[in-house]
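User: Can you fold this complex?
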Amino acid sequence: MVRYIIRRLLQAIPLLFIISILIFVLLQSSGDPLASMGGKRITRPEDRARLAHIMGLDQPIYIQYIYWLVGNDWVQIDIDNDGIPDTYGQRKGVLRGDFGDSLVNRGKTALSLIEERLPNTLILMIPAEIIILFFSLLVGIFSALRQYSLTDQVITAGSFIGYSMPIFFVALASMYLFAVNFRKWGLPYLPTVGMFDPKVGKSLSQVVVHMILPIFSMSLVSISGYSRFVRSQMLEVISQDYIRTAYAKGLSERMVLIGHALKNAAIPFVTLVGIDIPFLLGGAVITETIFGWPGMGRLFIDHLNRFDTPVVMGILMLISLAVVFFQLLTDIVYGWLDPRIRYN
Amino acid sequence: MFNKHTITKLLGLIIIASIVLTACGGGEVTATKEAPTTAPTMAPAAEKIITIAWTQEPNSLNRSYSSMWYMSVLTDIYSCWPWTYDQANELHPYLLTELPTVSEDGLVVTMKLRDDIVWSDGTPITSDDFVFTHEMITSTANTVDSAYPYDKFTISAPDAQTVVMTFSEVFTSWMASLWQGSLMPKHILQPVFDAEGTIDTAEWNMAPTVGCGPFNFTAWESGSYLRFDKNPNFWGPAPKLDAIVFQFVPDDAAQTAACLAGDADVCFWPPYEDIPSFREAGLNIVTEPSGYNEGWFFNFRDMASPGIKDVVVRKAIAMGLDRQANTDLRLGVVKVTETFWDAMPANVDPSIVPYEYDPEAAKALLEENGYIDSDGDGIREDHDGNPLTITQGNTDKTERQNYQALAQQQMLAIGIDLKTLSYNSDILFGSFSDNGPAAVGDLDIMQWSDVPYFPDPDSSYWLCSDIPTNENPYGYNYFGCDPTLDALFQEQIVTVDPTAREQIFWEITKYMHDNVYYLGIWEDGDVWIVNPRLVNYKFSGVNPFFNITEWDVTQ
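Assistant: Here's the predicted assembly.
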């Protein structure tokens, strides 16, 4: 197993390298970060030249990539653009933990911007994922065990309705119902936007209250989809011979369902969840935007719109790393769920 | 090696680590040692705090490092301008004892500072701060967004209360584009510049705890909010409010919900379709001209279609558009405009008669000039038998796309085939070398909202020298070179006498109107939604928060 893990980690190095090149090239060709710096007018050529030079954007793309990767503290930089190198660069490069400075929030590093937002995203996404997994399993199993019953039909109809609704609709509808109209009707209400009320301050109760609507919106759509998946997997497994054998041996229903049926039905579900989890780090763009949640999704979209390569690269590489890690973790969990799987 | 228990423990550890990380993280507030690092845990009941929903988060609080409108207007709160504009966009001295004086040749501008003005830490504001700010903005060591127009003049400080700006050539619009919230405290930033060779990394840029406005910066949580508290050392009238919170709400519909629910006291620029909801909820709707007009820019360059280069067709288009019907859809919040300068009426020739909606007259005009539908397909042909097809393009903003559909119908009614296109704004405004459709002249008519150097009427849009070419790929005169118009624009730039300059603009507006080089569609002014608990508020198109010290709450 250890050799397997080491081999997978070594394989990840060239993979991440190729991913970084692809993303870098795509970002460089997607837009001009200097275009909007002129305010009411297009950035003047003299300002463009000055900014491009100081920010290193006047270098060929492969040089920019090399500086991003390994830094530029080993080459002399011509700061005043007089053709004579003045001093060594100050960037250390991603391999030494320096993702560069933001082109938009100048004076702040890409990493510091990510560090500010990542905890907020995790505060929202981890509880959301736990709720989604719990209720997906609960609803999916419940529905499978009562196949074609009235309850199953109702759950099926509800799932299709939930899955068909775009998340922005659920988010706005719930906001208007529980925050605007409930207040108007004199009922207990929830806040509309934000992670907490800035006038009150950040406290556990404030954050929890502000989490309810975003988590509800994300969960409704995801539970609807996942529960269908769990239901179909459970239906397939509970009709297998070994389940019948387990019942015949006199095992309790709980033991058969949890210990045998669910464990086997969960393997494809684990794959799905393993793919999902890394993207939790990227936040939920739509939900965060609508509810004004200060997470990674908004950071990503705000900086992507302004072609802030260091920040966008930082976020995407973080997600890439997480994908590699969680895929590895998923493989390990397979081995736990299914004893037939061996990695040595 | 990895048995079930080990894996279970590993998973457990990951979950615990995630929870710990979650519990430890967040809540970092950008502030210096002098500011509280978090918002107060509970506001005393007597504190007067308002929340303003703000759709865009600033990228810096140093005005020179940000070109965002949503940042620039905040400078009324925590920074200071030498002069300010009121609700009527009239000028008033602010840091000055009187409005700046200008030499007869227009090259030397002198400002006399008040002797009682201080930074929020009590340090006097002197002419050295102006000289230092100029030095920082024009220094090649700093990545300020633009050195314009500070690189057009030199500056000196004969004494602590006098600032002299000497321009190399006449620059008439200096008052509308200089020192707008950009003043930097020398005593804070000079040591940073001396130590690091740049102020790019100065903490003050993101946390300007030493300011010169009625409120002090106190907290900025990334993606969440900005907070300003009353400046106890403010040299002007004491603000009535204790604090102002700008909460970042990027989604329009969510902003509307926040205002309707009372979570925000002020909202800005909501979708027009939400206006009835605000009215029904008893919220106040305030509109102020900001100089911006949504309009059609006509392309008369060589590559434009033959039809659009004919002034007869352009006039027919102006008469065939029912612009009032469109503004009616905007629920009375906006009005029809005619010229690019409608928000500055003193600069518009009063003899201009707006193009009235008259499709029959438009059709007759086209008929008289040989544009006839000879094949009966509903589209007229020109003298050479080419169909009168005009290409119109704008950004992919929904309200523009909606307007395209309306305009297309109205043009079809007079026999013009209007082909409409919409683009992402980065593509539409791409440079000549990037084949931007506006720059290379793919569009006959372009629509967007824009403004002169408001409240100064100067605009460099129609200068012949700004036509985009291979040699000038970032030129932004996408419309064409008319020597008469170019000469008028050049003349206004060097005309110091305000009355004579107004006369030139009368000529410009009349000439452009007669030739239909530009056609206003609707006034794109500022729309503010205000909770009735807020009183004494006024807004200005230039300095929206110019009377922020007067704002108060009743409950």
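Chain A touches chain B through 76 residues (CB under 8 Å). Strands of chain A lie at 76-77, 87-88.
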